[in-house]
Structure prediction request, 142 residues.
Amino acid sequence: LDLYPKRKFPTPATILATPDTRLRAAGLSGAKAAAFKDLARHVIEAKLVPAKLPKLTDAEVSAVLLPVRGIGPWSVDMFLMFALARPDVLPVGDLGVRKGMQMHFNLRSLPEPDKMIKLAAPWRPYRSVGAWYMWRLLEGPR
Prediction:
């Protein structure tokens, strides 16, 4: 944000106008700079309207975010859980959740997504809470 001292947050147009060299000098990798600009482009082109995201279903949010460069299923799951406070997200691609489920269910190997979905079925409609507990489980006793 030091790149934009006159604004609390830069506008998408400002981000697109920022030379990649300045973004790189600010510490962004080339891939992150490209993702940052692609996100700005999606907002400018109204393919992604931030104010509408809270009103969309989880599947609709995924459909809007996944075409943005650098945003994958894990990023969407984290956005749903922590930005939109969705209670029923099971981040099957998260290594911590996988390890926590392996430990909790005493599995020999890391569970695959389909197994995770079956094991977490009783947690519905609060699988986000279950995921949080899987992360905490890895921290050990306090």
About this structure: The mean pLDDT is 95. The helical segments are 12-17, 20-25, 30-44, 58-65, 73-83, 95-104, 113-119, 127-139. The two ends are 36 Å apart (CA to CA).
